[in-house]
Amino acid sequence: MIDLTFIKGKIVHDDFSSLKNIDPANQIDLLKEDMLQVEYPGAILLDVGWHPSFDITGSFQIRAIKDYDWDTPLFFAKAETTQLLIKEMTVAQNVINKNQ
Asked: Does pTM surpass 0.85?
């Protein structure tokens, strides 16, 4: 299980915390596009998913979205591992905090 206590927003969808902190290739059946969504004040979302779903050649994608403008994210990053993903999610939260 991945600990999400560092998340400061309201978790509205979570299929992410059930992942293990291991190589994504060993849990590919859990990796899909809609894994985590967190709401923050100021109409900001943190969105995390694996793209393309269930494909070992994919990667985690992290987006911070304001006012549902998916075409112009406040933050976008990719991560190949859960460890790097957690780091990028922390960076995304810092960006979110500056834009609230």
From this structure: yes
